[in-house]
Description:
Family: Belongs to the BCD1 family.
Region (Disordered): 239-267
Number of domains: 2
Strand content: 15-25%
CATH superfamily of the largest domain: Phosphatidylinositol 3-kinase Catalytic Subunit, Chain A, domain 1
CATH class of the largest domain: Alpha Beta
Pfam families: BCD1 (PF25790), zf-HIT (PF04438)
Largest sheet: 6 strands, mixed
Function: Required for box C/D snoRNAs accumulation involved in snoRNA processing, snoRNA transport to the nucleolus and ribosome biogenesis.
Order of helices and strands: EEHHHHEHEEEHHHEEHEEHH
Number of strands: 10
Number of helices: 11
Distance between the termini: 52 Å
Organism: Anseranas semipalmata (Magpie goose)
CATH topology of the largest domain: Ubiquitin-like (UB roll)
Structural class: alpha+beta
Amino acid sequence: xxxxxxxxxxxxxxxxxxxxxxxxxxxxxxxxxxxxxxxxxxxxxxxxxxxxxxxxxxxxxxxxxxxxxxxxxxxxxxxxxxxxxxxxxxxxxxxxxxxxxxxxxxxxxxxxxxxxxxxxxxxxxxxxxxxxxxxxxxxxxxxxxxxxxxxxxxxxxxxxxxxxxxxxxxxxxxxxxxxxxxxxxxxxxxxxxxxxxxxxxxxxxxxxxxxxxxxxxxxxxxxxxxxxxxxxxxxxxxxxxxxxxxxxxxxxxxxxxxxxxxxxxxx
Length: 267
């Protein structure tokens, strides 16, 4: 036994090939070596050591891969006809609020992450929301944020000196120690050329819905929380003399939503 070095070995770990004499020693070796005891089906085997058993193992591994791929192709959640119906419903509801909601094809990261819904009973959106704190290199994803919640209330658990979570507060310390008047909430303007990135400034005192009106949203809103003195090259539309709302329209990209998604996913 390679664990206690006292008893005769009875078992061999499929993962690391260590010999053990009892269940106790098996557990000890797993804990000491951080071993899960599961055989590595893709472990390298030299030609000199390759046997019929290895060949059989590889064959079964490929069969497992084939079955998994076939099961994924038959997955109803991917080919469910109601998926497009649900997406179209969200778009139409967003359009009633003057929000241009665009979606990406199934399989894209933002499409999988998105948990946005429209509650028919309450007649309001519950948005998936991403908060980005660039000065601390931190990101947080929020699920089902009600549309009538103000941005100030949304940010309280993160940058409020009193109400924020202690761990989050420590990570975002540069925000919590700064005056609230220095905090600026920006949202990237979509459908612009890659070399002319611009941001809209949002009103923290207003609701999420009010801030999203007349905006283009790809899947879900992403808000950038910045400090005015540190925002550097993040140009806010209307605060640059060379920029105007008309410029934004004239420079809109002619790419399709799918192509826009490809660019954003690759970046």
